[in-house]
Amino acid sequence: MTDVLRRGRASLAFSFFAQGVTFALLVTRIPAIQNRYGISDALLPAFLAAVPILAGVGSVTTEQLVKRVRPSRLLRWSQPVVLLALLGVGSGDRLAEVAVALGAFGLTVGALDASMNMLGVSLQRAYGRSIMLGFHATYSLGGIVGASLAWVGAHWHLALWVSYLPVVVVLLPATLVGSRWYVDGEGPAAQGEQGGADAGSVVFRLLLPLCLVMTFAYIGDSTVSNWSAKYLQDTLGSSEQLATVPYNVYMVTTLLGRSIGDFGVRRFGAAAVVRAGALVAALGFAVVAGAPGAWVGMLGFTLLGLGLCVLVPQTFAAAGRLFPGASDVAIARLNIFNYVGFLIGSPLVGALGDAWSYRGAMLVPMVLVLVTLVYARSFAPSGDRYGGGHERPRTADVGRGSNGL
């Protein structure tokens, strides 16, 4: 039983890593994609918005699919499609081709994100302690690797397909092999029997605080990813080279925070870690907004990485604890608000920056992150001090490697 769980944990961590690499390779090469296909500045926002919108559709579809198909099977086949869609983005010549490739990427990445987190929550329940932050740490590591590979491709002026092909050739078979050891939790039958009542309005009413926290966290994250370089250069007067540093620092501190975050959850509880993360993130936005110069601004982005990094993994984990009989349904619904926050964050800050000031705009995600404190109690249901629950592994819940389906 222990070997099954360990193999399941390692294979799922690799899946998170692969997705981090894949997503970073897409988003960091957007200028190259735009140039390759001649996408105008006016049309580019529509292409970028289509991906998270379709991902939300994919997540909604996954909610229905997991009633009949195990999450491990969805993950096993959605990840290769995402990788092939990435290759398609870099290999086409016409606008219609990139539209189809991005559409396939968006739809399947919604299923991929939802099913990965479903398996992570069920494994955490089986372990009886917090391990969810570790999975998201490997995603952050993958993002750093992917961004580094993208820099190499841009530096050497490599064609997009030349940058993407070696990654797909390595990761696609590796994820397929690793998928043999995925471990499911409750199967579709259990979801139907135990979660029927939870699948209606009661679930959403209880899930709403977590949905808001997820949205606010991704508004903060998209603010950093989309506006940190422009803010440092245009508002704080940094050089163009220095303006590229904050996002890298943010990714590294995100990895660091998630790597040690599970220990904090086990020691102090999930609610305490979420409160601390929200306060540190709010302090980071305050430092960024009031920074007199670029180096102080980078300190603020460092604090943002350490604070925001714990919110999303713990939100997924809390959904699993709130609805143990319908955790897959809850996570699929919660995952939609990942994309809601992504869609809202960048336009919101941009509009406020143009209409008011970018310093003032940074205070808005700060206030939203602070709202998380109001909902922190949702992260620690009664009797659950450690965030991973006190449930012990159950034979019915674990030991179902996906290769046994």
TrEMBL record:
Annotated organism of origin: Streptomyces gibsoniae
Biased composition (Basic and acidic residues): 387-397
Keyword Ion transport applies: no
Organism taxonomic ancestry: Bacteria, Bacillati, Actinomycetota, Actinomycetes, Kitasatosporales
Keywords: Membrane, Transmembrane, Transmembrane helix
Cross-referenced InterPro entries: MFS (IPR011701), MFS_dom (IPR020846), MFS_trans_sf (IPR036259), MFS_Transporter (IPR051788)
Annotated spans, Disordered: 385-405
Positions of transmembrane segments: 12-30, 42-62, 98-119, 131-152, 158-182, 202-219, 268-289, 295-319, 331-350, 356-376
PROSITE patterns: MFS
Primary localisation category: membrane
Annotated protein name in UniProt: MFS transporter
Signal peptide: none
